[in-house]
Write a structure and sequence with these properties.
Elements: H1 2-24, E1 50-55, E2 71-74, H2 80-88, E3 92-98, H3 100-104, H4 113-128, E4 133-137, H5 142-146, H6 150-167, E5 173-178, H7 193-203, E6 206-209, H8 230-242, E7 250-255, E8 257-262, E9 265-267, E10 272-274, E11 290-293, H9 294-299, E12 310-312, E13 317-326, E14 329-336, H10 340-352, E15 357-361, H11 372-388, H12 412-436, H13 450-458
Parallel strand pairs: 1-2, 1-15, 2-3, 3-4, 4-5, 5-6, 6-7, 7-15
Antiparallel strand pairs: 8-11, 8-14, 9-10, 12-13, 13-14
Helix pairs in contact: 4-6, 6-7, 11-12, 12-13
Bound molecules: 2-acetamido-2-deoxy-beta-D-glucopyranose (NAG) (6 copies).
InterPro entries: Chitinase_insertion_sf, GH, GH18_Domain-Containing, Glyco_hydro18_cat
Domain GH18: 237-362
Signal peptide: 1-24
Length: 460
Amino acid sequence: MPSTYKKIIYDTFIILIITALCVANKRLPCACRDVANCNYIPKNDEVRKEVFVLTNGSSNYKDWDWNTVTTVVDEDKHNLDVMCYSHSQHKKYGIIVKLDDIAAFDDLSSNNTNVTSWLEDFRIKARDTRADVVILNLMPLVPRLTKNEKDDRVQIDLFLAKLKRFILAPRDKMDCIVPWKPVRSGNDGSDDSESVSSMLAKSCDRFLLSPDSYAYIEGYGCKARATIPITKLVLGIDEYVTAGITEERLIMGIPWHGYSYPCKSFNETTMVCKLNNKDNTSTCDVANREKVSIDNLLTGNDIHVLSAEHWNNAYKAPCHVFKKNTSSGPTYHQLWYEDVESLRIKYQFAKDMNLKGIAIWTGDDLAKSKVDFVHDFNTEMWSWILHDLLGKGEIRPRGHAKYYYANTVTGVALGCLFGGMLLGIVFTCIGFRQIRNKKKTPPFAKDLEVEDYHDDSFNL
Ligand SMILES: *[C@@H]1O[C@H](CO)[C@@H](O)[C@H](O)[C@H]1NC(C)=O
Ligand SMILES: *[C@@H]1O[C@H](CO)[C@@H](O)[C@H](O)[C@H]1NC(C)=O
Ligand SMILES: *[C@@H]1O[C@H](CO)[C@@H](O)[C@H](O)[C@H]1NC(C)=O
Ligand SMILES: *[C@@H]1O[C@H](CO)[C@@H](O)[C@H](O)[C@H]1NC(C)=O
Ligand SMILES: *[C@@H]1O[C@H](CO)[C@@H](O)[C@H](O)[C@H]1NC(C)=O
Ligand SMILES: *[C@@H]1O[C@H](CO)[C@@H](O)[C@H](O)[C@H]1NC(C)=O
């Protein structure tokens, strides 16, 4: 008898423990109205090319052209509505995991309880968001990887491997946000980019080149530059390939925003806008540059354009110069942004180089107003990627029948050109509108004057 009691008590105890474990490990209930949307996107839906679109969930993402997108990446908030909607559209959902906390811990081993609790949070987040793709932002770790400390690098390596184990099956992708060129460590002149890269290549499946990382340029002189100078883009990809990370693992981040730089001095002849140095190093101080979304460019009135758009041939990007009144007098600002031609060159480059894809950085940068021309512009921005980059079907601006003349489109190339021109016109009109300071006219009213703008947009 006593032994039976013992057994019952023992069994109850075991059951209690199992129940406790299950409760502790319980997954959050599905947040979607349709429970099926909590399922991962099946792997056999794997695409040849990726078009990531980043969002912080603040815009009307449901209005996007979802055919264009392969994965929607939630930047920060990990908004489950975005997940439900992505899955309902049969598109992957990705989350970005910031590593700022981790970069601050000296000891990344499991001996540090702060690290173990961070890892546990990570595991739960990766699980409960039902993310198909987990993207680590490695940028905060770059300074540590740059230092030539082998022990530290071994710790980072083990740490990343642990993260990867947490998100395995049924998903299989852990992507990493990295700088425009491979991290190089060692101050003794030795090139260590290969060993850092091969370390990262074990855990990171694909590498997203951060568009904001091009600002970290040491020793190239302090002046305002395009967000992605095309010269550096080519150099960076070449260096990744040399370090053993091939093109089909690279995803190019493409900004849909620009930056306005306050100039320390501005030369109107050379159009060079000099910036301050950080402390007294050779690093430029870009902390006070201001982000300008396409929304601002299209609808904002705060940008007073002094000169017409200036096209920089070395960077393959446009800029505007304007003056701002400050307490210490007027200062020059140089605004580098993306127009139809600079975007076209980047999309084309991703395609020509056979990169894995692009990441639109970010979808929220588009204008939100309900005005017709904004709506048409947005439609154009989305459909363009689909046709040009993913190369599905014929290249034709969609949803623009009334601006679209059959006799203008004699072939694929011309169709593409026309799609581009619509965007070019929008940008050109902003310039003209602001310079002439005349009454607002609907930009597409200029469509019949396409010939007039042809040279503006395409004469490099
Ligand atoms: C963790 O702590 C144990 C004992 O305190 C020690 O032997 C081990 O080397 C530590 N591991 C790391 C990676 O620091
Ligand atoms: C862990 O975090 C606490 C609070 O943020 C901090 O005081 C402590 O020093 C950290 N421990 C380690 C080992 O980093
Ligand atoms: C601008 O640059 C040109 C060419 O380098 C130089 O000749 C000119 O003096 C500069 N102007 C100013 C105002 O610094
Ligand atoms: C660099 O700046 C620091 C203070 O910010 C100053 O003490 C130092 O003298 C400067 N060095 C040079 C070479 O100008
Ligand atoms: C800047 O100030 C000057 C006079 O101080 C004024 O004429 C000009 O309109 C101002 N510009 C802007 C953009 O506010
Ligand atoms: C989301 O991004 C947009 C565009 O960059 C920005 O204006 C907005 O403040 C952001 N919202 C949040 C909640 O971060």
